[in-house]
Amino acid sequence: MNISVCVGSSCHLRGSYDIIELMKKNIEKYGLEDTVNLGAAFCLGKCTNGVSIKIDDDIICGVSPENFDEIFKKYVLKG
Questions:
Q1: Which of 22, 24, 40, 74 is most buried, with most CB under 10 Å away?
Q2: pTM for the full model?
Q3: Confidence of residue 78 (pLDDT cuts 50, 70, 90)
Q4: pLDDT digit string (tens) for 20-62?
Q5: Are 53 and 3 within 8 A, CB to CB?
Q6: Other CB atoms within 10 Å distance of the CB of residue 54
Q7: What is the β-pairing status of strands 2-6 and 51-55?
Q8: pLDDT-based confidence at 79, cuts 50/70/90?
Q9: Which domain holds residue 10?
Q10: Phi-psi bin for 56: left (phi > 0), alpha (psi -120 to 50), beta?
Q11: Number of domains in the chain
């Protein structure tokens, strides 16, 4: 599974660094280091929709620390 967190200007200002840190912690917590590749993307083209992440071919917008757990469970753990 490939996960990219947008670090473009808009997403950076909306907290993409926090999302990267949450991703790292949860990938480690669930022992997914061998199956998940985490990286950064400079723009996913969804600049008005908050922090965007791409999981394989799906783009999820509006990711925040408040909804991160729900998104991680839905797209990563069940993916």
A1: 22
A2: 0.90
A3: confident
A4: 999 999 999 999 999 999 999 988 888 888 899 999 999 999 9
A5: yes
A6: 17
A7: antiparallel
A8: low
A9: 2-77
A10: left
A11: 1
2 phi and psi, to 5 degrees? -110, 130
Look up tokens 């200002």; give the residue: 13
Phi, psi of 64 (to 5 degrees): -140, 165
In whole angstroms, how large is the CA radius of gyration of the chain?
11
Residues comprising the chain, all counted: 79
DSSP secondary structure string for all residues of 10-69: HHHHTTHHHHHHHHHHHHHHTT-TTT-EEEEES--S-GGGSEEEEETTEEEEEE-TTTHH
Three-point CA angle 48, 51, 54, nearest 5°: 105
CATH label of the domain that carries residue 69: 3.40.30.10
Query: Hey, what are 15's tokens?
Result: 């907290």
